[in-house]
């Protein structure tokens, strides 16, 4: 079972940038497609970006051109570079595998306007 720990969130002004990190345990990390998700209170969790084992990526329309997902299989890490942030990006961000492992605690991103 993969365990996931997210970090890198914080408070940033609109137009700013943050880089989120996800540390994953387990020897089979490189065999998983990985995703970044976000969730606001009272709303469903949504997929923001996904990266396959081979590095192919997909993004939600709302973040295309602003967010970049990447992975380092040697370090069991997944990253989300977020640029040109706006207030609608304020959420708790989570990473996970496909299929899902147990969700981590996430990392809070708050964008002030």
How would you describe this structure to a colleague?
Strands 2-10-9-4-5-6 form a six-stranded mixed β-sheet, with no helix packed on it. The protein has no helices and ten strands. It has strands spanning 4-7, 10-13, 18-24, 33-39, 46-51, 57-59, 67-72, 77-82, 91-98, 107-112. The chain is mostly beta strands. A hairpin with a 4-residue loop joins strand 7 and strand 8.
Provide a concise account of the structure shown.
This protein has 113 residues and is mainly β.
Question: What's the layout of helices and strands?
Answer:
Layout: E1 4-7, E2 10-13, E3 18-24, E4 33-39, E5 46-51, E6 57-59, E7 67-72, E8 77-82, E9 91-98, E10 107-112
Parallel strand pairs: 2-10
Antiparallel strand pairs: 1-3, 3-8, 4-5, 4-9, 5-6, 7-8, 9-10
Task: Considering the chains and any ligands shown, give keywords for the structure.
mainly beta, six-stranded mixed β-sheet, 113 residues
Globally, the shape reads globular
Proportion of residues in helical segments? under 10%
> Which structural class do the helices and strands define?
mainly beta
Unreliable runs, pLDDT <50, ≥5 residues? none
